[in-house]
Amino acid sequence: MDAPLALPLLVGLIGVALLFDFLNGLHDAANSIATIVSTRVLRPQYAVFWAAFFNFIAFLFFGLHVAQTVGTGIIAPDVVDPRVIFGALTGAIAWNVITWWAGIPSSSSHALIGGLVGAGIAKAGGGAVVWAGLSKTAAAIVLSPLTGFVLALVLVLIVSWTLIRATPFAVDSSFRTLQFVSAALYSLGHGGNDAQKTMGIIAVLLFSQGHLGTEFHVPFWVVITCQAAMGLGTLFGGWRIVHTMGSKITRLSPMQGFCAETGGALTLFMATYLGVPVSTTHTITGAIVGVGAARRVSAVRWNVASNIVVAWIVTLPASALIGAAAYAAAGVFD
């Protein structure tokens, strides 16, 4: 283990991690509120408060399996040091800012994991990577949007057949109310999965510096601080991405918004339970495409969806390169 980091630098790195968590909430606010805003069930300024509240309380409903995976299952814990964490956070934050500015709903989760892998490899080569954990995370790039797509598609078909005799006005009124529930569920899933990634980063940093004893765990103050940072980020919203997610991919009715959010939420609940750090962005995009395709294939603007998919593929290697470069640059200060 390297020499312990001076307290001000340790606090500074934790601050950078919380900044990433804040930006994650900012960047991914659209995931939780795009459908409920695009269906005009809630105005944006009220929707972000609704999402932020459920982001914050998510720790009450989920274990810390995802934090465990990020902390010990992507890069070997004995490789982690402050420079690796700095490289990982720099790669993730830089990519988040680039894609947020461009209005591209890329994955904050995979940006963080890419930055961590890039910095870890820059330090210790390919042997630094826990390939089983990374493979599971990489597989989720395909599986999470596919699962969201299938669940949302099935839900919208079931609801459509069940309510075939109901009037459009009655259906619309009912699902405008039900969307409050589905948006809350999705925000819980978002807070439960995404905030844990930053918890894992902070916990493994503390562990590498000898502050957690001999056994890796996530202190409660780390849990509550990360949930708060994500909730605050959500409050500030990500309006460029809200527009892309809520209207550019497909137009949604309240019933379709409910099905998209519920399908996405179920996907996130399963992934969080299994400890898989999935992308909430990938998940809700797959679900939105699913409800659009259930109406008709041409209802989906496939050119927009394909551009989003390209961003997904590029995120891991791009953030890894930035993370490796940041790790090398930090060596100047050693």
TrEMBL record:
GO molecular function: phosphate transmembrane transporter activity
GO cellular component, one term: membrane
Location(s), subcellular: Membrane
Record's keyword annotation contains Membrane: yes
Principal location listed in the UniProt entry: membrane
Membrane topology type: Multi-pass membrane protein
InterPro entries: Phos_transporter (IPR001204)
Parts of the chain that traverse the membrane: 6-26, 46-64, 84-104, 111-134, 140-164, 220-242, 304-330
Alphabetical UniProt keywords: Membrane, Transmembrane, Transmembrane helix, Transport
Protein name: Inorganic phosphate transporter
GO BP terms: phosphate ion transmembrane transport
